[in-house]
Amino acid sequence: MLLLRPDAAPRAPTASKPVAIKLLLDGRYGARFAGELAASTQGYFSSRIEVAAQPEDPEFVQTVARQHAIGVTSGQNFLLASWRGIPVTAFAASFLDTSVAIFTLESSSLRRPADLVGKRVGYRRASEGDVVFDAMMAQLGLPRSQITKVPDRDSFEALRAGEVDAIIAAIDEQPDPSSSTYTKLNVIKPQDYGIHVPGLVYFASNALVHEQPSMIADVLQGLIRGWQFTYADYARSVPVLAGAGPAKPNSERLKFGLQQLRPLVLPTGGRIGDYDESRWRTLRDILLFAKLGEEDVPLAQTVNYQFLRDVYRRSPDLAAPGAWSEEK
Length: 328
What we know:
Order of helices and strands: EHEHEHEEEHEHEEEHHHHHHH
Distance between the termini: 42 Å
Oligomer: single chain
CATH class of the largest domain: Alpha Beta
Structural class: alpha/beta
């Protein structure tokens, strides 16, 4: 900081900088927020955007609305909050599909949902995993009453120790091969059995959407470029991301997480951020099925598709697969 001497001439007043808009992450820094970190560190936001992790906030969506900010959280968390009357609008997806998976030990021979009947499954109550798992079993006509769900036993330690036969966890939480706790696992993905819901979604306070739509569009374009940078070349992006944020994650761990999440961010034939109405309807239906809330606010009022359409129309190069299709 430059300090003026007492006898120095006063400086002419300068125009104040615009107030930074916060982009809040519902969780800790890591692979699942690589696109946001890349956009911030590589200068892809032309607006003043301050990225900050906000882990363990039970009222995350309300926090974003109160601060007139932008946030990224699970589709489930967003939709339930909007039903409770929190004034927010979703404008794109980070993960186009759920990151929830069911893990079993490779040695267990439990490889399909039907194999879980009569078994113990570790989970967290009312979590995205809990809701998606029940929806998958119901869709397949499997008897959920014959599955023993064990609350708060959703760790890989509990699985290895034999406390449960399977756990419901995020796909990027599994130990990587370089970890001392690595164990070969079977992975059951709900999307392989017809359950498709938005995973992580970008949203903003209604006030921000209505008052500064051009800033939302700029942030969305920056996020798309951030994810492109992340997946274009791991040799370039991983060192940058490993140095971003206070956590300083292990590079091998970070790369492994990115590899697990890639199909959710960059689905074959899809565009970054581009959610569709059918997945939102499926999410609405399974939340109602789980009796977690009532649809007091219709989807048409809480989910916006226009920002995505406009950004891809104005910058068609963002959708060009050549920018990110070659994994390195």
